[in-house]
């Protein structure tokens, strides 16, 4: 490849890889954190709030699916904006997305550290830097390699939530699944909508599937399907988990819980639940760090290739990986960790 020829990422990702990446980045720490405050607003109808939020997200997902099939290149929002607006607006969109992804990487790496301290008494910052460093090395290693690990980690994420669902089966009918917070009528509806707005955050990330379009084997067909499948699988998991949680803890107990999924497991299987859920949470956050660093580096790569950042950021390593963009993303994230 000559120095002036545009860099293209190798197309190595299949539908399984892209769906696993989508589910992996959606089913992150959100469900571990948002379930209790959502129940505080919606009561036993918290499961319906997840369903409503998924329905709203579906319209955005369909828009991304259409755009991804029209412009199957990396960069996602940055790429789409470049076909409509001028360079200044396009740069601001790309810069904003890249900054958000890098900061998310730092935040989630610290989340990993807090779960890891369940087993190791080490400063959060050192653990956060360690998972950032290992994740960046994996992403530099190449898409055909990190994608296989992401499939395994995403399967573990799903298994963690299914574990909660399975242990809650014996409590079916114990919770009031059709009773909203504050009785019936307007108060119940208002609480339900407030919860739906809150849990919308738990679905954020499905758009990152679009950043993998250039590395997908048949993006015009696979990327739209992967977007909708990722959102659909995540929605089903969220609804089942929230139903299990209400049945085990009750709406009031769930609303007052600071670690709802751990409390659900502890109520059913006893004291071992803390370590079991900590392992699942570590796998979840580690997977999210890998995927967020990947998305951030692809955004930097796309901006560099277009000339909105120094061209050196678009250089590919021998395996077709934008290694410098990955390293830059990890280093900036590390400064936020510190």
Write the layout of secondary structure elements.
Blueprint: H1 15-26, H2 30-42, H3 46-70, H4 77-82, H5 87-116, H6 124-141, H7 143-168, H8 186-199, H9 219-256, H10 260-269, H11 273-306, H12 323-337
What does the model show?
By secondary structure, the chain is an all-alpha fold. 71% of the residues lie in helices and 0% in strands. The chain is globular. It starts with 14 loop residues before the first helix and ends with a helix.
Estimate the global geometry from the Cα principal axes. Answer: globular
Largest β sheet strand count, sense and barrel closure: none
SSE order: HHHHHHHHHHHH
Which bin fits the share of residues in helices?
over 70%
Radius of gyration from CA coordinates: 20 Å
Structural class: mainly alpha
State mean pLDDT (0 to 100 scale).
90
Quaternary organisation = single chain
Identify low-pLDDT runs. Answer: 1-6
Number of DSSP E strands: 0
Q: Specify the number of helices.
A: 12
How widely separated are the two ends? 39 Å
Strand content: under 5%
Any key phrases for this structure?
338 residues, mainly alpha, 0% strand, globular
Structure at a glance:
The protein has about 350 residues and is an all-alpha fold. Helix content is about 70%, strand content about 0%.
């Amino acid at each position: 490849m000559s120095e002036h020829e545009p860099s293209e990422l190798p197309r190595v990702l299949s539908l399984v890889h892209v769906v696993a990446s989508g589910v992996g980045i959606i089913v992150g720490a959100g469900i571990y954190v948002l379930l209790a405050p959502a129940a505080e607003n919606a009561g036993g109808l918290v499961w319906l709030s997840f369903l409503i939020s998924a329905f709203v997200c579906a319209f955005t997902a369909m828009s991304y699916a259409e755009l991804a099939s029209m412009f199957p290149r990396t960069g996602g929002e940055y790429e789409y904006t470049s076909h409509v607006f001028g360079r200044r607006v396009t740069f601001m969109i790309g810069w904003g997305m890249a900054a958000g992804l890098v900061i998310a990487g730092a935040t989630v790496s610290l989340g990993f550290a807090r779960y890891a301290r369940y087993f190791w008494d080490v400063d959060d910052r050192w653990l956060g830097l360690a998972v950032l460093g290992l994740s960046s090395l994996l992403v530099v290693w190449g898409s055909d390699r990190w994608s296989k690990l992401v499939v395994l980690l995403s399967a573990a994420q799903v298994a963690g939530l299914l574990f909660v669902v399975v242990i809650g089966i014996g409590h079916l009918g114990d919770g009031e699944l059709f009773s909203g917070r504050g009785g019936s009528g307007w108060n119940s509806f208002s609480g339900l909508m407030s919860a739906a707005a809150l849990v919308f955050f738990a679905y954020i990330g499905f758009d990152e599937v679009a950043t993998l379009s250039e590395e997908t084997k048949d993006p015009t067909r696979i990327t739209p399907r992967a977007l909708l499948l990722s959102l659909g699988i995540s929605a089903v998991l969220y609804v089942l988990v929230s139903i299990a949680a209400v049945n085990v803890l009750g709406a009031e107990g769930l609303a007052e819980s600071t670690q709802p999924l751990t409390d659900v497991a502890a109520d059913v299987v006893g004291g071992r639940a803390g370590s079991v859920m900590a392992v699942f949470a570590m796998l979840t956050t580690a997977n999210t760090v890998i995927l967020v660093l990947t998305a951030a580096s692809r955004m930097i790569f796309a901006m560099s290739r277009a000339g909105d950042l120094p061209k050196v950021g678009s250089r590919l390593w021998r395996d077709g990986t934008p290694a410098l963009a990955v390293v830059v993303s990890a280093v900036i994230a590390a400064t936020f960790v510190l």
